[in-house]
From TrEMBL:
The keyword Transcription applies. Pfam families: HrcA. The gene is hrcA. It comes from Albidovulum aquaemixtae. GO terms for molecular function: DNA binding. One of its GO terms (biological process) is negative regulation of DNA-templated transcription. The keyword Transcription regulation applies. This is Heat-inducible transcription repressor HrcA. HAMAP family: HrcA (MF_00081). Residues 115-335 form the Heat-inducible transcription repressor HrcA C-terminal domain. Negative regulator of class I heat shock genes (grpE-dnaK-dnaJ and groELS operons). Prevents heat-shock induction of these operons. Belongs to the HrcA family.
Amino acid sequence: MSANTKILTEMNNRSREVFRRVVEGYLDSGDPVGSRTLTRSMSEQVSAATIRNVMQDLEHLGLLDSPHTSAGRIPTQLGLRMFVDGLMEVSQLASEDREAIDATTSGNEPGVASMLDRVGQALSGITHGASLVLTPKHEAPIRHIEFISLGPDRALVVLVFADGTVENRVFSPPLGHTPSAMREAGNFLNALAEGRTLSDLRAQIQREIDQRRRELDTAARELVESGLAIWHDSGESHERLIVRGRANLLDQADEADLERIRSLFDDLERKRDIAEFLELAEEGDGVRIFIGSENKLFSLSGSSLVVSPYMNADRKIIGAVGVIGPTRLNYGRIVPIVDYTAQLVGRLLSGERKGQDL
């Protein structure tokens, strides 16, 4: 039994109800909840003085806090976590929310990227928060790799995948590359690449370079390493983070929060810790909730993140969708929205992949 669960089970019914109503009132309005307000909603008739005593006990437990501007209480991060884990009631997905999400599958622009962009817009509009969508990496086995010189300081790397997809990227090669180095780098990669995905290939290449460093001249080795790095840059289009609805966060922020929200935007622009964003989702099936400092990417802004992974037909996690908002998010409503969206995206991508395989 976790410490939070133990605290909750040791509360008497009155304390548990006061705590629940304070949290629900705060999540609904964003304002501190006072004892007089609770006297009108408690299931038993109790005085405001009695409720204040209960609130003080909850404050001593670290579950509630009292802002200096008000006699009311708001939940702490610990209190929100305990509410989410033990008292929150997850609502059914509303039909209008389901319809708005389903509508993203029938846009005019075809392709996975366009569909995921529409998903991000829909999530943002429905939840009134900022949405995050981490697009899937291309994980098909590689058939062929080729480097093409475009000039003294520019080169093109072309990847042909076994499913017929072709991707290319312009990059800056190391100084001193020659046509022979280009050919040697391509031959080296093709000897290793067939049947391997790009992520499989990266680790194998490093082992081979370490073992065969003398066989590869410096220019070819650097070309292999720099060319491959282009494809593993988490900020590039094959692992793209779509962010929608930033204005929603700004609209909900007070003056003290604005600078922290801007800091969050800066981190998202730089794609900081985005790889970790997917790792968060991979740590468990279904929807996960991170409140405030529980996730370092959002700790400075004091925001909350509701995130769920989506999977391909092989049940492998290939991306994630999520919603960022203030800590007073309506978690009970947003959890089923994020869950449904992730499942829908997974089904769509699995269906498309199957169609390509056929």
